[in-house]
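idk why but the lab printer keeps eating my pages so im just putting this in chat instead. protein + iron/sulfur cluster:
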Amino acid sequence: MFGLYLHIPFCEKKCIYCDFYSVERTGEIARFVDTLCKEIALRAQYSHTIPQANTVFFGGGTPSLLSAQEMERIMMTLREHYAIIPEAEITAECNPGTVTQEKLTAYRQLGINRLSFGVQSFDEKELAYLQRIHSPEQAFEAMDLARKAGFDNVNMDLMFALPEQEIGTWKKNIHTMVGLQPDHISAYSLIFEEGTPLFALMKKGLANPAKEEHDAHLYEIGMELLGNAGYAQYEVSNFARNGQECKHNVLYWSGDRYCSFGPSAHGFLGDERYWNYRSLRRYSEYVHNSTLPIANKETLNKEEQMFERAFLELRAKGIRLSKFEEDFSVDIKTIAKEEIEWWIQNSWAHINEGRLSLLPKGYAVCDELTLSLITLLEKQAATEWQQKDFTEERDDEPSFSLTVL
Ligand code: SF4
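predcted complex ->
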C-alpha cells in the first residue's frame, strides 16, 4: 500500500486545544494552492520510482475551505504526477461549518469518496468551550449534505474527557452521533498539548484535565456504546461499521510508505522519514526556489522500525506475527510467551488469523501492554541484535531516491 497526504494549513479560527499547524490567514489560500501544486511536481521529479497510490488524504487545517476549483487543480496535478489507482480511497477532512451542497457535490465529482467531519461534540456549551466554529445543527446538516452528494463513506470525530464533562453528556453525544449513522467514528480523549491556549489555561489553573479514572471510564462507555451500535473497534480510537475502516490510517499503522505535501507534513519513503517546514512562509520560499521544503529527515534503523511496528500494530488491528518474524527475525510468541498467556487469561488480547490483537478490555490498557512488549523487544535487541544481518534488501518494498537540495 502507498499513500499521498496533503496538508492544507488554514482554519477559519483556531480551536483552543489544537496543535496541528494551521493559520487563520485564509486570504492566502489561492497562493498556497499554486505552491502546493508546485511542490507536488517538484517532489515527483526527485522520486525515481513512484508506486501507485492506494489512498489520498487531504488533512489539515481545514481542507474544506478549498473551493471546488482549487480542489480540482490539486487533484489534476496529483493525477498528472502520481498514478492513483481507480479504486483509491480519497478522503477530505471537513469542518461542518464550511460545507455547502454545491461544494460537496463538486468534491464527489472530482473523485473524493470519503469525508471526515470534525464534529467533536453535539453540546453547544462544549463546542463553545473548544472554540469550534460550528453548531450541532451544522453537523446534522453536514451529514445530510454529504449523503445527498453521494458519499457512502463518512467519518465523524468525537471528543471526550473535556474539563468537567459529565457521563450523561458523553453518552448523549454518542447516541446523537450513532443516530446520524456515520460509517466510521473516531473517538479521542482531549489532550492538553503544550503551546495551545488550553495548555496555557491549565498552567494558570483555569482548566483541569479529566482525572485518569474518569477518562478511562468515559473511554469504556464509548467502546461499549459504539460496539452495541455495530461499530467494530479496529484501533484504540477508531471504530467502523460494515468494514469501512480508514485505509489511509491503516496504511500508517502497518508501516507502509507515503509521500506528503504541504507545510509541516510528514512523509515516509524507503527507510527515510522527512518533514516539511512548519511555517507557510518558509515552506513557500523553498518551493518557489524549486527546492524541496524539507526541514529535516531521519533514517530509521531496523531496530527502530521493529519497535515502531510493534507499537503501531498492537494499537490497531494487531501484530502480524509471521510478517514480524520475516522482517525482523524475532518470534514474538516465543520472546513474549508469558506476557501473551497473561494477556489472553485476562481477556486483553487473543491470537487470531495470525495476529496478536487486543480485545476491548486490552484497548483500555493499551499503553501498559505496549510498554511491556517494547521492553521485551528492547531486551531481545540488546542481547541478540548485533549478530543479525539485515543488510539484505526486501524486494517487495518500493525503492526511492529522495534528494534534498
Ligand atoms: S478546525 Fe481542526 S485543524 Fe483547525 S484549529 Fe480546529 S482542530 Fe485544529
